[in-house]
C-alpha cells in the first residue's frame, strides 16, 4: 500500500517537473546579481573562494536552481542567435 502511494506521488512530482522545468544553462558568475542583505560577507567570501580555487561547471551536483523570467530567457536566446528547440535538444542529449 505504501509503495503505491509513493509511486503515485513520484508520478505527480515528475509531471510537475516536466511542466515547469525548462532546462539548464551555464552562465558566468559575474553575471549573477545578489540582493543586498546581511549575507553580503558570505557572498564576497564565496566569490573570493571561487576566484582562488575555481569551480566545477559540468557536474549536476554543483548546479544552482534558479528562476528566470520568460522575457529574459527569450531575450538571451535571441541574442545567442539560436532557437529554444535547439537548446532543448542539446541539453537532453547530454
Task: Walk me through the structure.
- The protein is mainly alpha-helical.
- It has one domain (2-93).
- It contains four helices and no strands.
N-to-C order of helices and strands: HHHH
Number of extended strands = 0
Sheet with the most strands, sense and barrel status: none
The proportion of residues in beta strands is under 5%
Distance between the termini: 36 Å
The helicity comes to 55-70%
Low-confidence parts, pLDDT < 50 over ≥5 residues? Answer: 90-94
Taken together, the total number of domains comes to 1
List keywords for this structure.
single chain, 94 residues, extended
Summarize the structure.
This protein is mostly helical and 94 residues long. The chain has helices spanning 2-20, 40-53, 70-79, 84-93.
List the helices and strands and how they pair.
Layout: H1 2-20, H2 40-53, H3 70-79, H4 84-93
Amino acid at each position: 500500500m505504501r509503495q503505491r502511494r509513493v509511486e503515485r506521488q513520484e508520478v505527480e512530482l515528475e509531471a510537475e517537473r516536466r511542466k515547469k522545468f525548462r532546462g539548464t544553462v551555464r552562465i558566468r558568475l559575474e553575471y549573477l546579481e545578489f540582493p543586498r542583505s546581511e549575507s553580503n560577507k558570505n557572498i564576497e567570501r564565496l566569490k573570493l573562494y571561487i576566484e582562488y580555487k575555481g569551480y566545477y561547471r559540468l557536474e549536476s551536483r554543483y548546479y544552482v536552481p534558479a528562476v528566470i523570467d520568460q522575457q529574459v530567457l527569450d531575450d538571451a536566446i535571441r541574442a545567442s542567435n539560436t532557437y529554444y528547440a535547439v537548446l532543448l535538444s542539446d541539453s537532453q542529449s547530454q
